[in-house]
Amino acid sequence: MTVGISWRVFWGFFVAFLALFVIAGAAILHFIGLPGSKVAYVCSGIVTSGLVLVLIGYIGSRTRRDASDHPLRFLKRLDFWGALVVIAAVPACLLARTPEPEVRPVPPPPVVQKSEPPPPPPPAPPLEFPTLRVRGLVCNGDRSSAVINGRTVQVGEVIEGVTLVAVEEDSITVELQGQRKTITLDDSSSTPATDSAALLEKQKRERTKNL
Description:
Elements: H1 2-32, H2 36-63, H3 78-96, E1 134-138, E2 145-148, E3 151-154, E4 158-159, E5 162-167, E6 171-176, E7 179-184, H4 193-210
Antiparallel strand pairs: 1-2, 2-3, 4-5, 5-6, 6-7
Helix pairs in contact: 1-3, 2-3
């Protein structure tokens, strides 16, 4: 009967202390806030410490026999506490283990599409001057004139869309849309200034008659 009571007391204390160790260990580990990977190392250290206590207590019980019949004599044995530590370490560590934060992959930076500049406008077609043939020239300052394509044109007047801007001794300068061009007197029609003046005078008289 005494043996039955002793085992009941033993197992009662063992379960009570085991629950206390599990709850206390889990609360301490959770308060410390160790990540899951480090909790495993702590659990391994606690289990190792418990096994050392079990080994020391077992060796001590073999070398020294306790003749006491007290029902709580097992509380003096290190192997009792070592076994509690070993058994309580695993559930305590499992309860205190917190899942590690999920590492989300960093999204790649947005691809910035470079907008290509609009193509340059096509070059303007080259400016073409009309065909002008100079038959005679009269150099008289601002009143200079020339016979162009059979017409007498004074400086500042327009013929074939171009403006006569200057008259030299053997050439004229015409302008079209801001561009200028020099046209020389036709070689086949090179005449003295007097002949040119006479030609111009004749054309003026004809123009007067028409008016």
